[in-house]
Amino acid sequence: MITWYIVSFSLLAFYFVLILMFWIGWILIKQRTEPFKNENKTKFTILIPVRNEEELILENLNSLLSLNYPFDLFEILILNDHSADKTGEITEKFIQDNKNFPLKLVDLSTFSAINNKKDVITFGVNTAQTEWIVLTDGDCRRNSDWLKALNEFIVEHNCKMIYAPVEFSSNGAFEHIQALEFSGLVGIGGAAIRLKKPNMCSAANLAFKKEVFIEMGGYDDNNHIASGDDEYLLHKVFKMYPNEVFFLKDLRALVSTSPNSSVEQLANQRRRWVSKSTHYENRSITAILAAAYFFNLTILLNFILSIFYDNFLWLAFIQIAIKALIEGLFLFDVLLFFKRSYLILFLLIAEPFHILYVLIIGIWANLAGYNWKGRKHI
Questions:
Q1: I need a labelling partner for 248 at 20 to 30 A (CA). Which of 113, 144, 287, 301 fits?
Q2: How many distinct structural domains can be found in the chain?
């Protein structure tokens, strides 16, 4: 019993220090609030891989149309990855209605070598006519000063890659809980980059130099893994240029996307995210994820043991209380940046579900595979 107490408290101490370090890393990132006075001069290619996005693609395109950046300094490639709906037709009509807008639809249905999102991105990078590539998704909206914010940061810093903020727009408790968790993941990703220990990012808002992608061989060594088009890229660029990868803490660079509308969609998304965790070249990331997994497992086991032994109940409550405390402090700081501090009210509701979700998805993702946009991945 004493041994179990030591294990439980050791994992609790580990988790507390881990989240504390992320909180410190987040605080250390300087937030940009005032525009930097300079000329727009960076040329961008915006790559948007799309597959069956007919419901949201028009909203995405309209947000691009509102970009406050010279049309001659960017191009947009909509990379249509074998969509079986009206994504291509809607995009074509938009192009016809806005003929002066630098947008091009690329139909990839005739390319037999396109088998996953990494192939789509590689095709787009090779096609791009500019020095800087910006990845985003087909269901996203962005601030009108999105490219201006990226340009200012590039002018000020010697960059090879920039991860910029992403948020879930949300309505209702189910979506608010997703938005709360996702804000935390973005905060962890940004903090880890600041601490020179990068772990996660999102291809919904990721910019990098084309020459770096080509120099490091793109996805050559991980193309067999369906997911991870963003994180593997981050890890490879950081390995080559550890001082030239940044998180841009600027709300003008914010990209918004939609949360999952059902538990099934949420499970598939999270299984996709978790499925790559056992393939990281940097095994310390996998080890940290495993330790966090076992910490959550001890909480559940302590609640189960409390059914038979009363003295385990207080141990479980101490664990979950300290977990909620350090997560709450970190999340509140992240939410202040996103100007969505009200989401912290959902933390205590989310805690028990989050523990179970971590435990279930952690195993399920590595055993059963997942479905994503009509493709089955094992």
A1: 287
A2: 2
